[in-house]
């Protein structure tokens, strides 16, 4: 399992600086983490399924924002003046109001979806007497580089939503302003936002199949990038070190080694799939 210390040794060896006399460990760590982010951006090798929610009446979802929340639990005693606040998740700004009926929290309405969230924040209800409500939030992480697919769940079914390029999506699926229902199609808008159609008529659980930028390694944390994809990292980090030294020729050599290593890695790991070997025989 690869840690930051493993990368430090690899890069220092490439630079012929095993005792870190020319580049400090702090510098190497910065180059290594930048190289890891570059690798994921170039290859999409760090995929994750982000479980989240989409909100009634909300068609646009921005990376780093809260996307929605679900209310559950056996509830009693809640009053109309009870409030909810959000904490954690490395972001800020999320705000919402609660709807209460017969002592139970029946709805949550976001007035601000916040920004900068890396993980889902914790929702806390301030109440004089209410008990039992659990509010689970969902986000589209600020570390998201790309959304590949979106699935929406209703009842006992998880359906893969169709995707359309923005011009087609806007022309064909946003014609009826405010039309609500179960979303069945989505599109990218810019580099950090997606839209869905139909506009949700209720809160739906969703799953974002996405490429995410890795968090910086520190201490003994294990790299989530799988071993098959780790080899190019040391070359890009070494290139950054040489560029800092203004040794541009040597930096270019390491840059080329990085690109060659990516091609070898993809050749070793990316294989063809047959969707259905029995197609046409059933």
Short description:
The protein has 282 residues and is of the alpha+beta class.
Walk me through the topology.
Elements: H1 4-14, H2 25-43, E1 47-54, E2 60-62, E3 66-72, E4 83-87, E5 92-101, E6 104-115, E7 122-126, E8 134-139, E9 144-154, E10 157-160, E11 162-163, H3 166-173, E12 180-181, E13 185-188, E14 193-197, E15 199-200, E16 204-212, H4 231-244, H5 248-269
Parallel strand pairs: 11-13, 12-15
Antiparallel strand pairs: 1-16, 2-14, 3-8, 4-7, 5-6, 9-10, 9-16, 13-14
Question: How does this structure look, described?
Answer:
This protein has 282 residues and is an alpha+beta fold. It has two domains: 4-45 and 213-269, no CATH class; 50-142 and 162-208, no CATH class. Helices cover 26% and strands 34% of the residues. The chain is built from five helices and 16 strands. The strands form six sheets. The chain has a four-stranded antiparallel beta sheet, with no helix packed on it. A hairpin with a 4-residue loop joins β13 and β14. α1 (4-14) crosses α2 and α2 crosses α4. The longest helix has 22 residues, at 248-269. The protein is globular, with a radius of gyration of 24 Å. The protein starts with a helix and ends in a 13-residue tail after the last helix. The mean pLDDT is 96.
